[in-house]
Amino acid sequence: MSSTSGRLGFTEVPNQTAVENSKRRTFDLGNGSEVVYMPRFLAFEESWTLFDYLDKQIPWTRPSIRVFGRSCIQPRDTCYVASEGLPELRYSGYQPHAYSWDDYPPLKDILAAVHKALPGSHFNSLLLNRYKNGSDYVAWHADDEKLYGLEPEIASVSFGCEREFLLRKKPSKTISVQSIGNRVSKGSSDQHSFILKHGSLLVMRGYTQRDWLHSVPKRVKADSVRINLTFRHVPI
Ligand SMILES: O=C(O)CCC(=O)C(=O)O
Ligand SMILES: [Fe+2]
């Protein structure tokens, strides 16, 4: 984009919105894992319209899942949308019904925007989560189901209440802690935290699911609904 010179010889600064929209930060987590964060992926008002639609129209359920051999109610609402003919998703002993994209046209618009932002991506399934307030959460996990292959790219779009998204390195199977004299250096880059904003996009790619865990912890102060969409590719 070219910039014009003002009357007094100052260079004009592009307007603030354009600068914000172009903000895209890439975080190299090391060893082939990468996270990309775009705080203003979708416009603010449009994001509220989508939030209202999703909150009201999606057939949310709160299923029973199995965690460490015990049955419990999943601590958030969920729904699953997938293209026809994909192998079925199963996680924590639960197999969600796959709804069709055609039943929820705004999801196709969001998918198109994600594909545009991430050239070369081909998402064909979507796991939706609804956190009614700060007592809903997702525990530490990796989306490393075989179904997704070895290096899944996962694109996560958030609406509504801002929540913290944490990444923590999986314990290494080899001894990677370096001893320097008496001091044990573990490095501080084994954890990352993002506040996922209304209308934001966060992408995990490379070996992030193999080498890292992520979570959205409980937050007493979060007092309103958050909706999160994670787009995934299931190879056929
Ligand atoms: O709500 C989020 O930001 C993350 C959801 C998530 O990790 C998942 O659905 O696997
Ligand atoms: Fe996840």
What would your notes on this structure say?
The chain is an alpha+beta fold and 236 residues long. Helix content is 16%, strand content 35%. It has four helices and 15 strands. The protein has helices spanning 16-21, 44-57, 105-117, 208-211, and strands at residues 25-30, 33-38, 64-67, 70-73, 77-82, 125-131, 138-141, 154-160, 163-169, 178-180, 183-185, 191-196, 200-206, 212-216, 226-232. A seven-stranded antiparallel beta sheet has the order 1-2-13-8-15-6-5. A four-stranded antiparallel beta sheet has the order 7-14-9-12. Strands 3-4 form a two-stranded antiparallel sheet. The longest helix has 14 residues, at 44-57. The N and C termini lie far apart (41 Å). It binds 2-oxoglutaric acid and fe (ii) ion. 2-oxoglutaric acid binds at residues 127, 129, 138, 143, 156, 165, 196, 214, 216, 228, 230. Fe (ii) ion is lined by residues 141, 143, 214.
Layout: helices, strands, pairs:
Blueprint: H1 16-21, E1 25-30, E2 33-38, H2 44-57, E3 64-67, E4 70-73, E5 77-82, H3 105-117, E6 125-131, E7 138-141, E8 154-160, E9 163-169, E10 178-180, E11 183-185, E12 191-196, E13 200-206, H4 208-211, E14 212-216, E15 226-232
Antiparallel strand pairs: 1-2, 2-13, 3-4, 5-6, 6-15, 7-14, 8-13, 8-15, 9-12, 9-14, 10-11
The protein binds 2-oxoglutaric acid and fe (ii) ion.
Residues 127, 129, 138, 143, 156, 165, 196, 214, 216, 228, 230 line the site of 2-oxoglutaric acid.
